[in-house]
Amino acid sequence: MNNTRKMILDGKIVAQAIYEEIKTEISSSSKKPKLWVILVGNNPSSLRYIKQKQKWAEFVGIEFELFSFESDVSEKELLEKVTFLNKDDTIHGYIVQLPLPKHINEKNIINSILPEKDVDGFHPQNQGKIVIWDDSWMAPCTPAGMMELLKYYKIDALWKNIVIIGRSNIVGKPIANLLINASATVTICNSKTQNIEFYTKNADIIITAMGAPHFLTVDKINPKSIILDVGFTIIDEKIYGDSDFENIIKNGNAITPVPGWVWALTVSCLMKNTLKAFKNRK
Ligand code: GUN
User: Fold this and answer.
1) What is the C-alpha radius of gyration for the chain, rounded to an integer number of angstroms?
2) Which of the four, 110, 138, 140, 237, has the lowest number of CB atoms within 10 Å?
């Protein structure tokens, strides 16, 4: 890992390598995996994300289908669709794009997805399997993508002091469990942690997933820390990560640039999970 200092960790390169691998594997199969995306309403960010998912599904050879509901669809109707997707053997994996409108209980929807088809890895059963390291899990895609990034750049989590800032169910908690299983020493902080520098200054790797633009500044880190910035905040149409990228890179740290890397890796791991769901059912 010596020459990762002063280096940009490029998630797009890692994602491309994952896509090529999946494409090769699917091209040698007579049957194709099938992925469905359920969208409620027409949130512009969701539409943009789904476009990316469709583009890369088609690139790797996964059949893709988008099913859209109006934003006033009832929770009951949405649950009926989930039941239909759970039962349809031709569909290997599906996701319900988040966020959902406020009148729909997100947890009820996620909990109703068949864990074997839960290619987002959001279902409690998949989250629980990560904790006990049962290899049949479908890991949430952003944490899985981070593990791919570390693997690609030969950054071994073993013996590392890793500080995660953010405790969400889809990033902070699952990445903590994946890293614990990789024998790292993991500390989970959050926006209310007192004297956060105490933790970040002693970290080999810092993962920020808070949505607090430029929170992580040079004075809070040591020059050897590797920074994975999962922050994504839009202000006046400009996207900000959680870290002061310009000054941190000048400081000599290896860091991921925002935006780009998280999404590339998240989508590539969605395709990887879909292939896994397909193979599990063959
Ligand atoms: N909205 C933003 N990111 C995601 C994601 O990874 N999965 C789903 N289902 N919705 C999202």
Assistant:
1) 19
2) 237
Residue 17 lies in a domain: no
Which residue among the candidates 97, 118, 127, 272 is catalytic per the annotation? 97
For ligand 1, say whether the CB of 97 is within 6 Å of any of its atoms.
Answer: yes
Asked if residue 61 and residue 150 are part of one domain, the reply reads no
Annotation marks residue 52 as catalytic = no
124-125-126 Cα angle (round to 5): 90
Ligand 1 in contact with 269 (CB < 6 A)? no
Q: List C-alpha distances in Å: 58 to 15, 76, 98.
A: 15, 31, 22
How many A from CA of 42 to the centre of ligand 1?
A: 14
Q: 181-196: per-residue pLDDT in tens?
A: 999 999 999 989 999 9
Averaged pLDDT of the chain: 94
- CATH code where residue 215 lies: 3.40.50.720
Helix, strand counts (H, E) of the chain: 10, 10
Say yes or no: 153 and 257 in one domain. Answer: yes
Q: What is the mean pLDDT of residues 81-101?
A: 97
Residue 6 in any domain: the answer is: no
Domain extent, residue 43, equals 29-116
Q: Is residue 249 part of a domain?
A: yes
Is 98 near ligand 1, meaning CB less than 6 Å away? yes
CATH code, domain carrying 87: 3.40.50.10860
Q: What are phi and psi of 165, to 5 degrees?
A: -110, 110
> From ligand 1's centre to the CA of 2, what distance in Å?
35
Nearest CA to ligand 1 atom 9: 97
